């Protein structure tokens, strides 16, 4: 009987131990935007799970865009169906954080970051990188992807038009003039494409405003600052892409395919698709990348696209696991995967070293170009009032009409300002 009792006790202890072991296993529910970005999210998750076998990463179906993901998060906050980790577009971060904070649904990463060794923090994150994930003085997230608009171009078409592929124009007037020459020398080729007219968010529009040395909002944060001559000139430039550069008003995915086919000389896009474009072009022509033209060299900046990783998990064990995951995805190993499979700027200080991306950059100089714009990188913030998505869709419709030649730039900028300010209220 004693033997049976001991056996039962042993079995009970084994069951308790097994249950405790299982209790330590954590599954994180993770949500991000853009299905194509599975190409780096999936391998990063696999590497993380190898290093952390007790934490499983389960991805929700990706949102079609940052705007769509943002709307989904706002709905899920009401129904308490939030993921454990979410990658928020920088331009919607403030709006989302303020909404989630009201319901106490967002984890403050400040204390978690402060608990890490100071030497580790300084080795991995600069103050500028950390600021990308801060809202109202709080560390709401950590920057995962970061990018500024990048110029891609066909070196052969540029040479044929009399341009120098090693010294591309650094202002919009000269670039449009070069695009016009490319078009005139090739009847079936467009000189330039800048697909702002159907871009899913206002990143490219902000690029045109910020490069002119003007912020989107005035000092009060309640009024648009790009009205009048500045906004009118931006719209005139956008119209010239079509009238002078022969830009086809097709959607941005079709435009990218036309560039890859050699039918567009100069093309603006996110560096996140540099790997895809490079592989598809192959040896069809010589692909090169260049810096975004800036008219105001002293004050001009560029919007920093990309996203920050947030923790919305409620459970303490999941919060702890999510912090380990976020540290990993913003670490040098994961950022190496992001850069090599996409083209983003790394958001980790150690990632560019010879231990990680150094050899890759030497062999692939087109991927290094984007790092030359870091000094101009500025926060991509939303509008006050909670209507950022609707504001861009309204602005985009007006911009589209200017590019089609249906609305004059002066009348259009007046409409953009008045309708934007109305929606900000």
From TrEMBL:
Main localization (coarse): periplasm
Pfam family, one: SBP_bac_1
CDD domains named among the record's database cross-references: PBP2_UgpB
Entry superkingdom: Bacteria
Location within or outside the cell: Periplasm
Keywords: Periplasm, Signal
Signal sequence annotation: 1-23
Cellular component, GO annotation: periplasmic space
Family indicated by similarity: Belongs to the bacterial solute-binding protein 1 family.
The protein's name in its UniProt record: Carbohydrate ABC transporter substrate-binding protein, CUT1 family
Organism of provenance: Bosea lathyri
